[in-house]
Protein backbone atom coordinates (compact mmCIF):
# COMPACT_ATOMS: atom_id res chain seq x y z
CA UNK A 1 0.00 0.00 0.00
CA UNK A 2 1.55 3.37 -1.09
CA UNK A 3 1.23 6.65 0.88
CA UNK A 4 -1.69 7.87 -1.27
CA UNK A 5 -3.65 4.74 -0.56
CA UNK A 6 -2.64 4.89 3.08
CA UNK A 7 -3.88 8.46 3.30
CA UNK A 8 -7.17 7.56 1.67
CA UNK A 9 -7.50 4.43 3.85
CA UNK A 10 -6.98 6.38 7.07
CA UNK A 11 -9.13 9.23 5.79
CA UNK A 12 -6.40 11.71 6.76
CA UNK A 13 -6.84 15.34 5.78
CA UNK A 14 -3.24 16.14 4.77
CA UNK A 15 -2.63 18.83 2.19
CA UNK A 16 0.17 16.92 0.52
CA UNK A 17 2.43 13.94 0.74
CA UNK A 18 5.14 16.27 1.99
CA UNK A 19 3.13 17.05 5.09
CA UNK A 20 2.68 13.36 5.73
CA UNK A 21 6.42 12.71 5.32
CA UNK A 22 7.24 15.44 7.84
CA UNK A 23 4.64 14.18 10.29
CA UNK A 24 5.98 10.62 10.16
CA UNK A 25 9.67 11.47 10.28
CA UNK A 26 9.68 14.34 12.79
CA UNK A 27 9.67 12.10 15.92
CA UNK A 28 12.48 9.99 14.50
CA UNK A 29 14.56 13.03 13.60
CA UNK A 30 13.97 14.56 17.02
CA UNK A 31 15.09 11.39 18.76
CA UNK A 32 18.23 11.07 16.61
CA UNK A 33 19.08 14.74 17.13
CA UNK A 34 18.78 14.37 20.89
CA UNK A 35 21.15 11.40 20.81
CA UNK A 36 23.67 13.30 18.72
CA UNK A 37 23.56 16.28 21.08
CA UNK A 38 23.85 14.01 24.11
CA UNK A 39 26.89 12.26 22.61
CA UNK A 40 28.51 15.56 21.69
CA UNK A 41 28.01 17.01 25.15
CA UNK A 42 29.28 13.80 26.75
CA UNK A 43 32.38 13.81 24.57
CA UNK A 44 33.04 17.42 25.43
CA UNK A 45 32.68 16.64 29.12
CA UNK A 46 35.10 13.73 28.86
CA UNK A 47 37.61 15.84 26.96
CA UNK A 48 37.64 18.54 29.64
CA UNK A 49 36.44 17.03 32.93
CA UNK A 50 35.80 19.37 35.82
CA UNK A 51 38.34 19.53 38.64
CA UNK A 52 36.76 20.49 41.97
CA UNK A 53 39.38 22.50 43.83
CA UNK A 54 40.26 21.65 47.43
CA UNK A 55 40.01 24.24 50.23
CA UNK A 56 43.73 24.82 49.71
CA UNK A 57 42.92 27.13 46.79
CA UNK A 58 40.83 29.36 49.04
CA UNK A 59 43.43 29.84 51.78
CA UNK A 60 44.66 33.25 50.54
CA UNK A 61 41.12 34.61 50.97
CA UNK A 62 40.73 33.42 54.57
CA UNK A 63 40.85 36.15 57.22
CA UNK A 64 42.73 33.92 59.64
CA UNK A 65 44.23 30.40 59.63
CA UNK A 66 42.40 29.86 62.92
CA UNK A 67 39.25 29.20 60.90
CA UNK A 68 40.76 25.92 59.67
CA UNK A 69 40.32 22.67 61.64
CA UNK A 70 43.91 21.90 60.74
CA UNK A 71 46.46 23.88 58.71
CA UNK A 72 48.01 22.44 55.54
CA UNK A 73 51.37 22.14 57.33
CA UNK A 74 49.97 20.13 60.26
CA UNK A 75 52.32 17.30 59.29
CA UNK A 76 55.97 17.59 58.21
CA UNK A 77 57.20 17.28 54.64
CA UNK A 78 54.12 18.71 52.93
CA UNK A 79 53.98 19.04 49.15
CA UNK A 80 51.34 19.41 46.47
CA UNK A 81 51.60 17.13 43.45
CA UNK A 82 50.02 18.53 40.31
CA UNK A 83 48.45 15.84 38.13
CA UNK A 84 45.91 15.63 35.27
CA UNK A 85 43.36 14.67 37.94
CA UNK A 86 44.02 17.70 40.11
CA UNK A 87 46.42 18.46 42.92
CA UNK A 88 47.27 15.86 45.59
CA UNK A 89 48.39 16.84 49.08
CA UNK A 90 51.28 14.60 50.24
CA UNK A 91 53.29 14.46 53.47
CA UNK A 92 56.62 12.60 53.61
CA UNK A 93 59.22 12.62 56.34
CA UNK A 94 61.54 10.43 58.40
CA UNK A 95 65.05 9.02 57.95
CA UNK A 96 65.87 8.62 54.25
CA UNK A 97 67.25 5.12 54.87
CA UNK A 98 64.39 3.96 57.11
CA UNK A 99 61.72 1.39 56.32
CA UNK A 100 59.31 3.00 53.88
CA UNK A 101 55.66 3.01 54.99
CA UNK A 102 52.78 4.28 52.82
CA UNK A 103 49.43 5.03 54.47
CA UNK A 104 46.02 4.98 52.74
CA UNK A 105 43.22 6.47 54.85
CA UNK A 106 39.48 5.83 55.05
CA UNK A 107 36.44 7.19 53.27
CA UNK A 108 35.99 10.43 55.21
CA UNK A 109 38.80 11.46 57.55
CA UNK A 110 41.84 12.75 55.62
CA UNK A 111 45.32 11.35 56.05
CA UNK A 112 45.77 13.20 59.35
CA UNK A 113 43.89 10.22 60.80
CA UNK A 114 47.32 8.53 60.73
CA UNK A 115 49.14 11.39 62.48
CA UNK A 116 49.65 9.41 65.68
CA UNK A 117 50.84 6.22 64.01
CA UNK A 118 53.12 8.05 61.59
CA UNK A 119 54.74 10.07 64.36
CA UNK A 120 55.48 6.91 66.37
CA UNK A 121 56.89 5.06 63.38
CA UNK A 122 59.27 7.92 62.57
CA UNK A 123 60.42 8.86 66.05
CA UNK A 124 60.44 5.42 67.68
CA UNK A 125 61.08 3.04 64.80
CA UNK A 126 63.08 5.22 62.41
CA UNK A 127 60.71 4.71 59.49
CA UNK A 128 60.24 6.88 56.41
CA UNK A 129 56.50 7.56 56.13
CA UNK A 130 54.33 8.96 53.35
CA UNK A 131 50.69 10.00 53.74
CA UNK A 132 48.37 11.61 51.23
CA UNK A 133 44.78 12.80 50.97
CA UNK A 134 42.61 10.74 48.64
CA UNK A 135 40.92 12.72 45.90
CA UNK A 136 38.05 14.71 47.41
CA UNK A 137 39.43 14.68 50.95
CA UNK A 138 41.53 17.10 52.97
CA UNK A 139 43.65 19.30 50.73
CA UNK A 140 43.46 17.17 47.57
CA UNK A 141 41.37 18.21 44.58
CA UNK A 142 38.56 16.08 43.14
CA UNK A 143 38.36 14.99 39.51
CA UNK A 144 34.70 15.00 38.49
CA UNK A 145 33.34 11.63 39.74
CA UNK A 146 31.07 11.43 36.69
CA UNK A 147 34.10 11.29 34.39
CA UNK A 148 36.41 9.58 36.91
CA UNK A 149 34.48 7.33 39.31
CA UNK A 150 36.14 6.72 42.65
CA UNK A 151 37.06 3.13 41.91
CA UNK A 152 40.16 0.95 42.04
CA UNK A 153 41.44 2.41 38.78
CA UNK A 154 41.42 5.98 40.10
CA UNK A 155 42.87 5.10 43.50
CA UNK A 156 45.58 2.90 41.98
CA UNK A 157 46.56 5.74 39.65
CA UNK A 158 46.66 8.16 42.57
CA UNK A 159 48.94 5.89 44.60
CA UNK A 160 51.36 5.53 41.67
CA UNK A 161 51.38 9.31 41.16
CA UNK A 162 52.12 9.84 44.86
CA UNK A 163 54.95 7.31 44.88
CA UNK A 164 56.48 8.79 41.74
CA UNK A 165 56.46 12.29 43.30
CA UNK A 166 59.03 11.40 45.96
CA UNK A 167 62.67 12.36 45.61
CA UNK A 168 63.46 8.93 47.03
CA UNK A 169 62.95 5.65 45.20
CA UNK A 170 59.79 3.97 46.45
CA UNK A 171 59.32 1.63 43.50
CA UNK A 172 61.49 -0.04 40.92
CA UNK A 173 64.95 -1.48 41.27
CA UNK A 174 63.78 -4.04 43.79
CA UNK A 175 62.37 -1.41 46.18
CA UNK A 176 59.31 -2.55 48.11
CA UNK A 177 57.43 -0.66 50.80
CA UNK A 178 55.02 -1.42 53.64
CA UNK A 179 51.43 -0.46 52.84
CA UNK A 180 49.07 0.37 55.71
CA UNK A 181 45.41 0.73 54.73
CA UNK A 182 42.59 1.73 57.05
CA UNK A 183 38.87 1.13 56.43
CA UNK A 184 38.29 2.01 52.76
CA UNK A 185 42.06 2.37 52.51
CA UNK A 186 42.33 -1.29 53.51
CA UNK A 187 40.22 -2.33 50.53
CA UNK A 188 42.25 -0.02 48.29
CA UNK A 189 45.53 -1.34 49.71
CA UNK A 190 44.59 -4.98 49.18
CA UNK A 191 43.49 -4.29 45.59
CA UNK A 192 46.69 -2.35 44.88
CA UNK A 193 48.79 -5.21 46.26
CA UNK A 194 46.96 -7.71 44.07
CA UNK A 195 47.89 -5.67 40.98
CA UNK A 196 51.41 -4.64 42.02
CA UNK A 197 52.84 -7.44 44.19
CA UNK A 198 56.39 -6.49 43.27
CA UNK A 199 55.95 -3.05 44.88
CA UNK A 200 54.36 -4.01 48.22
CA UNK A 201 56.66 -5.89 50.56
CA UNK A 202 54.39 -5.92 53.61
CA UNK A 203 50.64 -5.41 53.88
CA UNK A 204 48.89 -4.19 57.04
CA UNK A 205 45.11 -3.76 56.93
CA UNK A 206 43.30 -1.98 59.77
CA UNK A 207 39.53 -2.56 59.98
CA UNK A 208 39.56 -3.04 56.21
CA UNK A 209 36.72 -2.87 53.74
CA UNK A 210 36.56 -5.38 50.91
CA UNK A 211 34.90 -8.35 52.59
CA UNK A 212 31.87 -6.70 54.22
CA UNK A 213 29.07 -9.23 54.05
CA UNK A 214 26.18 -8.43 51.74
CA UNK A 215 23.63 -8.92 54.53
CA UNK A 216 24.84 -5.68 56.11
CA UNK A 217 23.89 -3.59 53.08
CA UNK A 218 20.19 -2.85 53.56
CA UNK A 219 17.51 -1.98 51.03
CA UNK A 220 17.74 1.77 51.66
CA UNK A 221 21.49 1.76 51.00
CA UNK A 222 21.03 -0.17 47.79
CA UNK A 223 18.35 2.27 46.72
CA UNK A 224 20.35 5.36 47.69
CA UNK A 225 23.60 4.37 46.05
CA UNK A 226 22.07 2.81 42.97
CA UNK A 227 21.09 4.70 39.82
CA UNK A 228 17.35 4.98 40.41
CA UNK A 229 17.08 8.15 42.49
CA UNK A 230 17.90 11.66 41.24
CA UNK A 231 21.32 12.90 42.32
CA UNK A 232 19.98 15.92 44.19
CA UNK A 233 17.93 13.64 46.43
CA UNK A 234 20.87 11.32 47.12
CA UNK A 235 23.11 14.27 47.96
CA UNK A 236 20.46 15.75 50.23
CA UNK A 237 20.09 12.53 52.19
CA UNK A 238 23.80 11.78 52.49
CA UNK A 239 24.65 15.36 53.45
CA UNK A 240 22.08 15.22 56.24
CA UNK A 241 23.51 11.94 57.49
CA UNK A 242 27.07 13.24 57.51
CA UNK A 243 26.04 16.43 59.29
CA UNK A 244 24.02 14.54 61.88
CA UNK A 245 20.70 15.94 60.75
CA UNK A 246 17.45 13.95 60.50
CA UNK A 247 17.43 11.98 57.24
CA UNK A 248 14.69 12.09 54.66
CA UNK A 249 11.48 10.04 55.19
CA UNK A 250 12.67 6.79 53.64
CA UNK A 251 15.61 6.47 56.03
CA UNK A 252 16.38 3.06 57.46
CA UNK A 253 14.31 1.82 60.37
CA UNK A 254 15.10 -0.56 63.17
CA UNK A 255 11.83 -2.29 62.29
CA UNK A 256 13.30 -3.61 59.05
CA UNK A 257 12.39 -7.17 58.13
CA UNK A 258 16.10 -8.01 58.20
CA UNK A 259 17.50 -6.86 61.54
CA UNK A 260 21.08 -7.46 60.36
CA UNK A 261 20.74 -5.15 57.34
CA UNK A 262 21.49 -2.06 59.38
CA UNK A 263 24.79 -0.77 58.01
CA UNK A 264 24.42 2.41 56.00
CA UNK A 265 27.78 3.32 54.42
CA UNK A 266 27.49 6.69 56.13
CA UNK A 267 27.91 4.80 59.42
CA UNK A 268 31.56 4.35 58.50
CA UNK A 269 31.96 8.11 58.78
CA UNK A 270 30.21 8.16 62.14
CA UNK A 271 32.54 5.41 63.35
CA UNK A 272 35.67 7.09 62.04
CA UNK A 273 34.56 10.20 63.91
CA UNK A 274 34.11 9.36 67.61
CA UNK A 275 31.10 11.27 68.86
CA UNK A 276 29.87 9.41 71.89
CA UNK A 277 27.08 7.52 70.13
CA UNK A 278 28.77 4.19 70.84
CA UNK A 279 29.98 3.30 74.35
CA UNK A 280 33.37 2.18 73.06
CA UNK A 281 33.97 5.59 71.54
CA UNK A 282 32.42 7.96 74.07
CA UNK A 283 35.57 8.61 76.12
CA UNK A 284 37.47 9.70 73.02
CA UNK A 285 34.82 11.82 71.35
CA UNK A 286 37.11 14.86 71.27
CA UNK A 287 40.42 13.03 71.04
CA UNK A 288 43.17 15.27 69.68
CA UNK A 289 45.07 14.05 66.64
CA UNK A 290 48.12 16.12 67.58
CA UNK A 291 49.43 16.58 71.15
CA UNK A 292 50.47 20.16 70.37
CA UNK A 293 47.22 21.00 68.53
CA UNK A 294 44.36 20.07 70.90
CA UNK A 295 41.74 21.72 68.67
CA UNK A 296 42.23 19.27 65.80
CA UNK A 297 39.84 16.32 65.98
CA UNK A 298 38.32 14.00 63.39
CA UNK A 299 34.84 15.35 64.12
CA UNK A 300 35.48 18.97 63.19
CA UNK A 301 37.66 17.90 60.25
CA UNK A 302 34.81 15.99 58.59
CA UNK A 303 32.38 18.83 59.26
CA UNK A 304 34.85 21.28 57.74
CA UNK A 305 35.12 19.16 54.58
CA UNK A 306 31.35 19.12 54.23
CA UNK A 307 31.25 22.92 54.46
CA UNK A 308 34.32 23.91 52.42
CA UNK A 309 35.38 21.09 50.08
CA UNK A 310 33.10 21.03 47.00
CA UNK A 311 34.41 17.62 46.01
CA UNK A 312 33.96 15.84 49.34
CA UNK A 313 30.29 14.86 49.06
CA UNK A 314 30.47 13.78 45.38
CA UNK A 315 33.63 11.81 46.15
CA UNK A 316 32.02 10.12 49.14
CA UNK A 317 28.94 9.06 47.17
CA UNK A 318 31.05 7.86 44.24
CA UNK A 319 33.26 5.84 46.61
CA UNK A 320 30.23 4.09 48.07
CA UNK A 321 29.14 3.14 44.57
CA UNK A 322 32.46 2.17 43.00
CA UNK A 323 35.23 1.71 45.59
CA UNK A 324 36.44 -1.73 46.79
CA UNK A 325 34.11 -2.00 49.77
CA UNK A 326 32.46 -5.38 49.12
CA UNK A 327 32.93 -8.43 46.87
CA UNK A 328 36.72 -8.20 46.73
CA UNK A 329 37.26 -11.88 47.32
CA UNK A 330 38.86 -12.53 43.92
CA UNK A 331 41.49 -9.81 44.40
CA UNK A 332 42.30 -11.14 47.88
CA UNK A 333 42.62 -14.67 46.48
CA UNK A 334 45.36 -13.43 44.15
CA UNK A 335 47.31 -12.35 47.22
CA UNK A 336 46.78 -15.81 48.66
CA UNK A 337 48.01 -17.57 45.53
CA UNK A 338 51.31 -15.68 45.64
CA UNK A 339 51.87 -16.52 49.30
CA UNK A 340 51.05 -20.17 48.63
CA UNK A 341 53.51 -20.26 45.75
CA UNK A 342 56.23 -19.02 48.08
CA UNK A 343 55.58 -21.84 50.55
CA UNK A 344 56.22 -24.38 47.79
CA UNK A 345 59.53 -22.88 46.62
CA UNK A 346 62.73 -24.57 47.74
CA UNK A 347 64.28 -21.36 49.07
CA UNK A 348 60.99 -20.02 50.43
CA UNK A 349 61.37 -16.79 48.46
CA UNK A 350 59.20 -15.20 45.81
CA UNK A 351 59.57 -11.67 44.45
CA UNK A 352 55.79 -11.33 44.33
CA UNK A 353 55.08 -12.71 47.79
CA UNK A 354 54.92 -10.57 50.90
CA UNK A 355 58.12 -10.60 52.95
CA UNK A 356 56.35 -12.04 55.99
CA UNK A 357 54.48 -14.52 53.81
CA UNK A 358 51.17 -13.27 55.20
CA UNK A 359 48.89 -10.27 55.66
CA UNK A 360 48.42 -8.56 59.03
CA UNK A 361 44.84 -7.50 59.82
CA UNK A 362 44.16 -5.34 62.90
CA UNK A 363 40.56 -5.31 64.13
CA UNK A 364 38.73 -3.33 66.80
CA UNK A 365 36.88 -5.56 69.24
CA UNK A 366 34.01 -3.07 69.50
CA UNK A 367 33.88 -2.18 65.80
CA UNK A 368 30.26 -2.23 64.62
CA UNK A 369 31.08 -1.51 60.97
CA UNK A 370 33.88 -3.98 60.27
CA UNK A 371 32.78 -6.81 62.55
CA UNK A 372 35.85 -8.57 63.93
CA UNK A 373 34.36 -12.08 64.06
CA UNK A 374 33.15 -11.88 60.46
CA UNK A 375 36.28 -10.35 58.96
CA UNK A 376 38.58 -12.80 60.69
CA UNK A 377 36.47 -15.73 59.50
CA UNK A 378 36.14 -14.46 55.93
CA UNK A 379 39.76 -13.33 55.59
CA UNK A 380 40.99 -16.69 56.87
CA UNK A 381 38.80 -18.50 54.37
CA UNK A 382 39.80 -16.29 51.42
CA UNK A 383 43.50 -15.86 52.19
CA UNK A 384 44.12 -19.18 53.93
CA UNK A 385 44.99 -19.58 57.62
CA UNK A 386 48.71 -19.72 56.87
CA UNK A 387 48.61 -16.46 54.91
CA UNK A 388 46.93 -14.11 57.38
CA UNK A 389 47.40 -13.02 60.96
CA UNK A 390 44.47 -11.29 62.67
CA UNK A 391 45.06 -9.26 65.82
CA UNK A 392 42.21 -7.82 67.87
CA UNK A 393 42.65 -4.58 69.76
CA UNK A 394 40.44 -2.73 72.20
CA UNK A 395 38.49 -0.05 70.35
CA UNK A 396 35.92 0.65 67.69
CA UNK A 397 36.28 1.47 64.03
CA UNK A 398 38.49 4.42 64.94
CA UNK A 399 41.16 2.20 66.47
CA UNK A 400 44.15 3.65 64.54
CA UNK A 401 43.10 7.16 65.58
CA UNK A 402 42.44 6.56 69.26
CA UNK A 403 44.83 3.65 69.87
CA UNK A 404 47.70 4.52 67.55
CA UNK A 405 50.35 3.13 69.90
CA UNK A 406 48.68 -0.28 70.15
CA UNK A 407 48.43 -0.43 66.36
CA UNK A 408 52.11 0.42 65.94
CA UNK A 409 53.13 -2.12 68.58
CA UNK A 410 51.20 -4.90 66.84
CA UNK A 411 52.48 -3.81 63.44
CA UNK A 412 56.16 -3.73 64.44
CA UNK A 413 55.89 -7.06 66.23
CA UNK A 414 54.56 -8.56 63.01
CA UNK A 415 57.17 -6.92 60.78
CA UNK A 416 60.01 -7.95 63.08
Automatic annotation (TrEMBL):
Domain of life: Eukaryota
Domain AB hydrolase-1 span(s) in chain numbering: 101-240
Pfam families: Abhydrolase_1
InterPro entries: AB_hydrolase_1, AB_hydrolase_fold
Segments for region (Disordered): 248-277
Record-given protein name: AB hydrolase-1 domain-containing protein
Species of provenance: Friedmanniomyces endolithicus
